[in-house]
Design a protein that fits this description.
Helices cover about 80% and strands about 0% of the residues of chain A. Chain A is built from eight helices and no strands. Chain A has helices at about 5-45, 50-65, 65-80, 85-110, 115-125, 130-160, 170-180, 185-219. Chain A is flat and about 70 Å long. The model of chain A has no long low-confidence stretch (mean pLDDT about 90). Chain B has one domain: MetI-like fold. Chain B is about 80% helix and about 0% strand. Chain B is built from ten helices and no strands. In chain B, α2 crosses α5 (about 85-110), α6 (about 110-120) runs antiparallel to α7 (about 125-155) and α8 (about 165-180) packs antiparallel against α9. The longest helix of chain B has about 35 residues, at about 10-40. Classes of the chains: A mainly alpha, B mainly alpha.
């Protein structure tokens, strides 16, 4: 068996188009996860015990159950209760929810790393809680989190391949379709794998670079 | 809901398959992680480079793509594996690639003086690892390994996409036959949650077991975190 380069080149444009959707889903999922993750982290620190318990167990449940099953749950159950959304949005919702539980841990660590004196200073200056968070805590907590948050975005990027199973026409789905109609799976699936590497490796290298910079500044 | 009870044997059968895949893949992942982690930490450089390429390939692509590749491309290359074997090998190699970094990090966190002490005492390689390095590195590796094993359990539903009748696959069948998506998926979500929690509980016990008599545990853990 040989690798048919001509065929691989021929299917490349379709797969790249599929990747555009992969990237859209990653961006959508990341935005949702970053926002929800922060919400989880803040709720976990809330003074209201009920809110703390609810958000804590929700994020724990999201972390300990498989993304694929969550995806099926959202995709098949939402229409049953009358909420009909396009598959891509169901995918973004599942990706965002799943990652937000992990990101909330990153936020937690980042917030805890802000020295206690900063909280006291904000209190001494009579800052409102919103001002304290917005002007003192978060601006110091977020930059060191960037590499860790970025790693979760890369992880999500790879997980978007799962969206193929809920009919989202992303890269993996496109490759499966090509395979199903031509009986040639080798080329499309291999090209998808290479495209994944071409995107994820530079991003990971960039994150390592940022990480080193952050550590240097801290030192 | 009562309708669902008659399908319980099917789900149980799927659960058994899921547990089998998880256990076998976990063993493969642990072996791969240990071997590759040691090579990455202290290996002959060509070997280190090869292991590095393996790690980048498995960490840089989607596990679904890897599984699909093993199913549809390997047979064309003349390697025919049973679905079960292909699934556990792919999942084992995937998680092993992440695990090797955990092992490397844990070895790196063992203070330099400990390695030097082994040289000073003229320990053989086996004695060095068996009595000095591994007991210390083990404590640091257990907590991240617990997370990896939960991740491993959580990628096993992917095998349902390549014809293996695991818990998720059976749930899809039950869903089609009963039309009750909510109860079916909620049931297996809870089952997966319980399995993950069990893995975490086992590793907590292991962590306590391996930390016994370690006074410098806290300081070592800090060193591993940085």
């Amino acid at each position: 068996m040989t690798f048919d380069f001509d065929f691989a080149l021929q299917v490349l444009p379709d797969l790249v188009r599929g990747f555009a959707i992969t990237i859209q889903a990653t961006v959508g999922g990341s935005v949702l996860a970053l926002a929800l993750g922060l919400a989880f982290a803040l709720a976990n620190r809330s003074e209201n015990r009920l809110l703390r318990v609810c958000s804590g167990s929700a994020s724990e449940f999201l972390r300990r159950t498989p993304l694929l099953v969550q995806l099926f749950f959202i995709f098949y159950v939402l229409p049953d209760v009358g909420i009909v959304i396009p598959p891509i949005w169901a995918g973004i919702l599942a990706l965002g929810l799943h990652s937000s539980a992990y990101m909330s841990e990153v936020y937690r660590a980042g917030i805890e790393a802000v020295p206690k004196g900063q909280w006291e200073a904000a209190l001494a200056l009579n800052y409102h809680p919103v001002q304290t968070w917005r002007r003192v805590i978060l601006p110091q907590a977020i930059p060191p989190m960037v590499p860790a948050l970025g790693n979760y975005v890369v992880l999500m990027f790879k997980e978007t391949a799962l969206l193929a199973v809920i009919t989202v026409p992303e890269a993996m789905n496109t490759a499966r379709d090509i395979g199903n109609s031509t009986y040639q799976y080798t080329e499309p699936v291999t090209v998808v794998g290479i495209l994944y590497l071409l995107i994820s490796i530079p991003v990971v290298l960039a994150l390592r670079f940022i990480e080193r910079r952050v550590h240097q500044e801290a030192a | 809901m009562s309708q669902l009870y008659s399908f319980l044997p099917m789900l149980l059968q799927g659960l058994v398959t899921t547990i089998q895949i998880t256990v076998v893949a976990a063993v493969i992942a642990t072996v791969v992680a240990t071997v590759c982690g040691v090579i990455r930490y202290s290996g002959w450089w060509p070997l280190r480079a090869i292991v590095g390429i393996y790690i980048e390939i498995f960490r840089g692509t989607s596990c679904y793509v890897q599984l699909f590749w093993a199913f549809f491309v390997l047979p064309l290359l003349g390697v025919t594996l049973s679905p079960f074997a292909a699934a556990v090998v792919v999942i084992g190699l995937n998680v092993g690639s992440y695990g090797s970094e955990v092992v490397r990090g844990a070895l790196k966190a063992v203070p330099r003086g400990q390695w030097e002490a082994c040289v000073a005492l003229n320990y053989s390689t086996w004695h060095k690892y068996r009595y000095v390095i591994v007991p210390q590195a083990m404590r640091l590796a257990i907590a991240p390994m617990a997370n990896l094993m939960v991740d491993l359990l959580k990628i096993t539903p992917l095998v349902s996409l390549v014809t293996i009748s695991d818990l998720t696959y059976e749930a899809m069948v039950v869903r089609q036959q009963t039309g009750n998506s909510f109860a079916t998926f909620l049931t297996i979500l809870v089952v997966y949650f319980v399995l993950s929690s069990a893995i975490i509980a086992v590793f907590r016990r292991l962590e306590i077991h391996f930390s016994r008599g370690a006074e410098t545990f806290a300081t070592n853990k800090e060193a591993a975190a940085t």
